[in-house]
Amino acid sequence: MGVMVARFVIGGVGALLLLGAIAVMATPPNDAIGAISLFIPGALLIAAVALERTRYRSLSAERTGHGHGPGGGEPQRPEPRFRPTDERFVDPSTGVPMRVYLDPNTGDRRYVPEA
User: Fold this and answer.
1) How far apart are CA 103 and CA 46, in angstroms?
2) Chain segment 22-61, per-residue pLDDT in tens
3) In the chain, helix, strand, coil percent, each to 5?
């Protein structure tokens, strides 16, 4: 639950910065440097929230709220429609070897710890 609150707060701050940039440009005198100094951090915060969400977990696992598996991946083997790929890596934050599974029809990916 804390992760969701953090995402909401960070995304909200990013949105407020973007709105501030629009307000600065909309009111005279237009201060382009001031607007850019608000716009860039706001855009980066929103991008960070969007990209962090997909790190080693599927969106369906995020929506269902299932716990994280070892290495931050899926807590169990994916559905049969997912096929294992040759792509493997070691999660740099946990040191757990991970394998990538792919749904060939949708391109959806799952990250599963190797036994």
Assistant:
1) 28
2) 999 998 888 888 899 999 999 999 998 887 755 555 555 5
3) 50, 15, 35
- Residue 28 DSSP code: S
User: Which helix (H) or strand (E) is 60 found in, with range?
Assistant: helix 59-64
Report the alpha-carbon distance of residue 84 to residue 46 in Å, rounded: 32
Tokens of 52: 């962090």
Spatial distance between the Cα atoms of 76 and 115, rounded to a whole number of angstroms: 11
**Cβ–Cβ < 8 Å for 35, 42:** no
Please give the Cα distance from 54 to 51 (Å, whole number). Answer: 6
What pTM does this model have? Answer: 0.50
Q: How many residues does the chain have?
A: 115
Give the up-direction half-sphere exposure of residue 60: CA atoms within 13 A in the CB hemisphere.
Answer: 9
pLDDT tens figures, 60-99: 556 666 655 655 566 677 888 999 999 998 877 678 888 8
